[in-house]
C-alpha cells in the first residue's frame, strides 16, 4: 500500500522568505518576553535556532496540533532542553491546547507547563524530558528505533514517520552522544535527523576552547550522512532536511548559527546562553529584528503563518485514521496495547506456572537463571517486549528465544546494544514512551553507567525494566570493580523507581509480574550470578513480593528476634533462624524484596511486618544505608562497609563476615545488650 | 638541558623475531596456566595482545622494576582490565618484586595481588584500577595531562615520559571514550599512545554485529594520529610505536589481532573472551605455539629475554636520579609534595582567616560563593592543585584567579573540561595518582554522569575533590532535571567517599580544610546556588565540621527535641528551634555536614550528639534514606519524597513543605504522639 507522507509544499527555492523570517522572529520575541518575565532562562539557543525551527515546523514536520498523540506524527526532540522556550513558543503559535499564552507568561514558575526544561507529560508536543545533556539525542535513538520496529511489527501503513533532534555542542560533548551516534549509524536509522546548533559557544567561552573535534567527520565515521549549512538561511535549511529525508542513513545537519541572534551586544557570546538578556538588550534585539510589537504580542501575519503551518498535517492525519480503520484487528492488537500501555491476558497464569515449576524442580539455581526461565515464558506472550543487553547476553540471560534485530530486519525482539549501557537505557526511555516494554540488561555494578538515563525513566514515569545480574560480592572472582556494594542503596534512594531483589525462583517470578504491571515506573531486578536454594513452596499464593516485605518464616511462639533480608542473603537469615530456634530463641524472618513496595503498604501492615520482637538484625551483602529504616538505630546489620574483593564467592562471604553465624551472633549479642535474655 | 629518553636499541627491521615470539608466548602460557588454575578469567585478550606487549616492554616502555614508582617511568594502562593476566605475567617475567610466581598461581583468589581485574595498590606496575570499560582510557588522559603539567611546572628534565594504553573495542564503545578522545585530541597529548586490541570480537559475537564505526576515522576526527597494523607482526608493532613517539598528536594504533590466539577451536571466537579455555584447548594452544614446557614453567631463553627487557631502563633511571639531584630545591618542593602527597604549611591559617572573614562580613551568600572565597586563598598556596569545571565555571565558582591551561601552554592550573563530567573525573583520578590535587566541578545532579569514575576514586583511595553546586531544589527554575533529590543519599552510600554539605561560610571553610587533608579518599562538596545566612560566629574554634555532626544550638534546659539538618536547611532547623523554645519546648539543633565523619567518631561522642531527647526530627531538601540512622524509625523527616519542580526556590520550599514551620509542627506532633507533653 502506498503511504502518504508529508512532502514539502513548495521547492526550497521558492520559499516565502519574508514569512519564514516573521515566523522565526515570533519565536524569538516570545522567547525573550517569557525569559524577561521569568527573570530566568536560556535565550541563546532559541534566538539562534529560530530559523531552523520555523522551516522545520512549516515545511517538514508531520504533526497535527488537534491530536498531539497522533501515533504517526513526526517526533521532535529538543535535546538542547535549556532552549525550552523555542519549543514552548512554537507549540503556542501552532495552537497546541496545552500551551496558551498564559503558560508562556508563567514560564519557569511553579505549576507552569512551561518548566525550565521541557518535561514529558506537561504538554502535548513535549515528546520527552530533556535538559541533562546528551539524553535527548540518545532517547531519540529509542524513538527512531521504535518507528522501525513499529513499521516491521505493525505495518508501514500505520507506522511511517521521522524523528528530528535539535542538539547543542554540549549534547555532542557528552559521552552518551557517541553511544547514540554509533547505534544510529549501525542500525541505519535513516528516519533520524539531527539538527546541530553549531554556534561555537559554550558557557565557559568559545567551543574551540574545549573541543577540536570535526563533528561532521565524527558522525561520518559512524555511518551518518552529514552536511553543514547556514542555520539562518531558510532555503539551505529546507534543502538540507530534504536531503536528510532522502538519505538511507541517519543525517547530521550542522547548522551554523549565531547564539543570541539579534541581541546587539550579547549575540555570539556566552552571555547570551543562560541568563535573561535584560531590558536594554531585548529592546536592541527587537529593533534589529524589526519587531515592533509589545511583549507577548504576535502580529496577525505571523499568527496566520504559524496557523497555516499547524494546518498542514490535518489531511495526513485524516488519511492515517482511514488507513488505520482498515487494518485488520489481529494486526492492530499489539499496536493498540502499546498505545494504551495495557497487558494481554495470560501473564498471571504464566507466572503461576513458573512458580510451580520452581517448587517442583527444587533446584538450586541463580536468580538470573530463574529470571531467564520466567522471561522465556512471559516474552512469548508479549510481542511488545523489546529486550536487549549491553554485550552481556550470555551472562544476563534475558534473550531466551527472542530473535535479534539487525539493520536490515527490525522484526525481531532483541537488541544487541553493544557495551553502551547509557545509550541503551536512554533509548529504552524512547521505546517505553512509544508503548513498547523495554528490557535492558547489564551487571548491577554498571547501573552507575546509566543512572542519568534511569533518573529520566523515573522522572517521566516510564515502565522500563532493568535486568541487573551479578548483584553482590557473590559474583566472585571478577572482584571489587564488578561487585556492587552501594548500588542497591543508591537505587533505592531514587524516587519513583522500583528495586526488586528476589530471594529465589518464586520471588523472581513475582518480581517479573510486578515489573510488567508497573508501566508507570521503572523496575530494577537485582539478580544473583551464584545459585540460591528454592526457599518458598507456596506457588499458589498471591504475589507476596508485591507487599514489599513479608514474613517468610514465623517464630515458634512470641518472636524475640526479627531477621530481615533480601535476595541471596535470605537463606542466611533462615539458617540463622534455625540455629536460634534450636537454642530456644523464637525468631522470625522477613524477606524484603522491595523497600518501595513495602513503604506503600498500609501502616498497620508495615507495623505488623516490623513486628514487636525487641531484637532486629538485617543481612544483605551491601551497605547498611537502606536498612536503618527497618531495623532502627539500635538494630544490627550484617553486610558490607567497604568495597569487595576478588575471590570465590563462598570465600568472600566468609571474608566479609556475611554468614548465618554472624547473623545469629548479632542477634544473641543484641538480646544480651537489651537485657532480653 | 638535553634529556635522555629511551630510544629503541635496534631498528624495527632487525628485531630478534624469534626472541620476541618466545617472550610473547611466555605471556600466553602464564595466562593460560593461571586462568586454568583459577578456573576463572579472561584468556582472549592476553593471548591476542601478547605480541604487542612483548614489543612494547622490550623495545619501547621506559621503566625499571627496581623502582616501580620511579616518577619519570612511562605509564602503561591496561584499560581492557579483564585481560589482567597480560599485565601480571609481564610484571612477573620482568622481575617486579610484588609479582612472584606464587601470585600468578593464586590469580583471582582471595588476598592475591593478582585480582580478577588490575587493582591500584596491589602491586608495582599497576598504575590504576581498571575493569569497568572506558575508565582506563579516560584515566590515561589524566596521566598524560599530568606529564604535560609536570613538564611545564617542574621542568622537562625531571618530567619527560609517555603514557600507553591497551584498549579493547568495549573501551571504545563506552561513551566516556569519546570524552577522553576529544580531550586528548584537543590538548594535543602527543605523549599518549592507545594500542587498540582490534580483534572484532565482543561477548555477544562479532563486533560488526553492534558497531559500524570506523574507529580510525573517529579518532582522526578528534585530531589524533592514527594507523592500523597487524598486531601479531613485531616489526609493524615496533615501527608503529616509533611513529607514535614521533607524532605531535596522540596516536591510535589499531592492532588487528586474533582473540584467543593459538587456541585451536576457540581462537577468533567469543568463547575465548571470558572463560578458561579448558585442558584440551590449552594443550592444543601450547602445541600451536610450540610451547613444550609445563604449567608455570618458563624456559631460560624466555626468562633471559624478559630480564634483558627489564634491565633496559636501569641506566635511564640512574641518569634521572642524577639530574634530579641537581635540580634546585625551590623547583623541587612542589614536585616532592606531589610524590609524598603532603601539604604545605599555612593552610590552616588561611582557613582561619576565611572563617574570620565570614563572621566579620555576616553576609548572606551562597555556599558556592563562600567556597570560591576560601578556594581563592587556598589555591594560591597549592601550586599542585589543578582545578577545572565541566563547562560551568561561572556557576561552580572554582576557578578564582587560576589560569587555564591550553594545548600550547600547560603552566596554568585550571582545565576547561567541556561538558564531559565522566572523563573529567576519570582524568582527575589520573592526576590524583600522579600526586596533584584535582578539583572538578559541575552541578550535584550531574554527579550521576560520573559515578563510575568516582567509584574508582573511592576504591583506589584518591583525594579527588568535587565541587558540586546547585545542591537541592534551592536551585530553583531549572527544574526537576537539574535538582538533586536522591544524590546525597546515593553518594553517602558509597564506601570511602566523604560527602560534605556545609551550612554556612564557616562550615564551607572547614569543609575545604577537610577535603584537602583527605588525600586518601575523594570528597564531595555539596554547595548551594542560593544565599544562606552566616550561622556560626565561632571562627576561632577547631574544625567542628570534622566531627561530622555537632550541636550548633543547645537547648535551654533538658532537650525534649533534637533537630538534625545539613547545609541550607540548618537555618530552618534553627528557626524551628527558636519557635519551639518560645513555646517552652527545649530544643537543640545538630548540624550534620558529614555522615561519614560522624560515623568515625567514638561511640560516646556519637551517643552524645544523638542525644537523649525523646523527639527527633531531621530536615534536608533531599530523600530521607540517609537520615534513618540518626532519627530512627519513629523520627520525623522533613524533606523530599519525589522529584523537584521548576519555580523560584522559595516557592519550591513551600510547595514541598520544607519549612521551619513543618519542622516545628512535626516536633510538636511527635511530642504528642510519644506522650511527652
TrEMBL record, chains A, B:
Binding site for Mg(2+): 169, 199, 201
Record's keyword terms, sorted: Magnesium, Metal-binding, Thiamine pyrophosphate, Transferase
Span of domain Transketolase-like pyrimidine-binding: 365-534
UniProt enzyme class: transferase
Cofactor: how bound: Binds 1 thiamine pyrophosphate per subunit. During the reaction, the substrate forms a covalent intermediate with the cofactor.
Entry's Gene Ontology BP terms: pentose-phosphate shunt
Site features described as Important for catalytic activity, chain residue numbers: 42, 273
Sites where the protein binds substrate: 42, 273, 368, 470, 478, 482, 529
Active-site residues (renumbered): 421 (proton donor)
InterPro entries found in the cross-reference section: THDP-binding (IPR029061), Transketo_C/PFOR_II (IPR009014), Transketolase-like_C_2 (IPR055152), Transketolase-like_Pyr-bd (IPR005475), Transketolase_bac-like (IPR005478), Transketolase_CS (IPR049557), Transketolase_fam (IPR033247), Transketolase_N (IPR005474)
Catalysed reactions, semicolon-separated: D-sedoheptulose 7-phosphate + D-glyceraldehyde 3-phosphate = aldehydo-D-ribose 5-phosphate + D-xylulose 5-phosphate
EC numbers for this chain: 2.2.1.1
Gene3D superfamilies: 3.40.50.920, 3.40.50.970
Residues annotated to bind thiamine diphosphate: 82, 131-133, 170, 199, 273, 446
GO molecular function, one term: transketolase activity
Cofactor: thiamine diphosphate; Mg(2+)
Stored SUPFAM superfamilies: Thiamin diphosphate-binding fold (THDP-binding), TK C-terminal domain-like
Glycoprotein recorded as keyword: no
Gene Ontology CC: one annotated term: cytosol
Protein family according to the UniProt entry: Belongs to the transketolase family.
UniProt cross-references to NCBIfam families, sorted A to Z: tktlase_bact (TIGR00232)
Record protein name field: Transketolase
Organism name: Bosea lathyri
